[in-house]
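Quick one, probably user error.
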């Protein structure tokens, strides 16, 4: 996943975005890389998430009656017409993930031209956006309110997130603090915090809120508000934002269908592989895999033991029948040789003897067709007369049917008995 955020400047608020802050994360929980680059130099990633800066969003709570889906956008424009600082048609709206008809729900509003420009710039750089999320979003009533301070190019900002929404203000520079004083500057923030509905009365004080700040504006935030802040890197804020269920690409803002499908697939995979609710299932899959490997290993060991036992039985049989054999290298081959030698010593025909081969040829090969015969312990070579090519092929077929291994080269035929073939009887 690649999170990108436009680098916005108060000096040139309407200038095209030239630099983008980016953060890459494999699991959505920790950063694997980050930096600031032009759109064309951003790392490529199929799961591109656009982070909308908190100070570019406004938040409004509405309650809609049940309406057809195609009328929801126009109904929102009518309800928010007097609350927005711009024409409703120039503002992009997005409903909260838990939106339900007849219940109060949050609506995020951002300048449509600005958002479309960001999406188009990334699309032109061949970095299609798969999801758009707000940097800060309203919290549940039971959640502890949060106070965040960060540096936006040349200006420090502070955002207050609670069940009342999200409010952002620029922090005054050091010169302004010397004149106004930190306590006076933060007074209006304390007044806003006192209006936040919280489970406990003490939670309405800024001192009880979660407070964090980027290192670049830590001193400025603490001096302005008279509070201590915990250091937090921008990466932590970006990762926390994308973990929400918010999706600002709604109504007339259509993102790449392929990018959206890819993003949903990556989101599901990250959820399955890294989220806490699926931890037990992941361990279960690991345990199941280990069990399967153990079963396969056990079956393999058992088969090896059975094979070893059979091989040992064959070796034992060889040494019992032929006690003079002290070294067993290949029991079946050695037993075949000993049986053949025993047959020869007793005047019996061996399975690879010339007599057996001639018997197997039978009347298919006339005696005048043979002009030569050579044999040794393992191979018989037959030579045929000129013009008997057809007889050679007939002999090859006949011997192969009887279990001989045959190789013919011109008028020369070489044959040997296949090791697994039983010795035939000449009376067959």
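Nope, works fine. Designed sequence:
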């Amino acid at each position: 996943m690649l999170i990108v955020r436009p680098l916005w400047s108060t000096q040139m608020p309407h200038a095209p975005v030239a630099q983008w802050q980016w953060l890459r994360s494999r699991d959505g929980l920790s950063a694997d890389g980050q930096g600031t680059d032009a759109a064309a130099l951003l790392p490529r990633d199929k799961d591109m998430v656009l982070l909308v800066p908190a100070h570019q969003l406004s938040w409004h709570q509405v309650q809609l009656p049940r309406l057809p889906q195609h009328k929801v956008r126009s109904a929102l424009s009518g309800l928010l017409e007097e609350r927005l600082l711009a024409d409703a048609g120039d503002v992009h709206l997005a409903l909260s993930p838990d939106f339900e008809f007849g219940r109060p729900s949050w609506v995020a509003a951002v300048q449509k031209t600005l958002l479309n420009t960001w999406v188009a710039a990334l699309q032109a750089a061949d970095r299609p956006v798969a999801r758009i999320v707000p940097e800060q979003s309203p919290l549940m009533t039971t959640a502890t309110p949060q106070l965040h301070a960060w540096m936006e190019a040349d200006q420090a900002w502070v955002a207050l997130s609670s069940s009342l929404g999200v409010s952002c203000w620029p922090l005054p520079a050091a010169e302004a603090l010397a004149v106004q004083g930190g306590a006076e500057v933060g007074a209006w923030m304390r007044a806003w915090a006192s209006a936040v509905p919280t489970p406990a009365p003490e939670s309405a004080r800024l001192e009880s809120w979660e407070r964090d700040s980027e290192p670049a504006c830590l001193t400025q935030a603490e001096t302005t508000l008279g509070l201590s802040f915990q250091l937090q890197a921008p990466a932590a804020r970006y990762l926390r934002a994308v973990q929400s269920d918010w999706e600002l690409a709604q109504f007339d803002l259509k993102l790449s269908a392929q990018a959206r499908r890819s993003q949903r697939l990556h989101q599901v995979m990250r959820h399955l592989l890294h989220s806490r609710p699926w931890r037990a299932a992941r361990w279960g899959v690991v345990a199941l895999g280990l069990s399967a490997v153990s079963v396969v290993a056990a079956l393999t060991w058992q088969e090896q033991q059975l094979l070893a036992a059979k091989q040992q039985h064959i070796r034992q049989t060889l040494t019992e029948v032929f006690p003079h054999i002290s070294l067993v290298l290949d029991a079946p081959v050695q037993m075949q040789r000993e049986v053949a030698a025993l047959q020869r010593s007793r005047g019996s025909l061996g399975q690879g003897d010339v007599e057996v081969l001639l018997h197997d040829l039978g009347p298919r090969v006339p005696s005048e067709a043979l002009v030569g015969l050579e044999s040794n312990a393992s191979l018989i070579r037959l030579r045929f007369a000129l013009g008997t090519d057809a007889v050679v092929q007939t002999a090859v077929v006949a011997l192969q049917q009887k279990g001989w291994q045959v190789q013919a080269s011109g008028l020369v035929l070489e044959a040997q008995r296949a090791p697994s073939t039983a010795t035939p009887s000449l009376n067959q």
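The radius of gyration is 43 Å.
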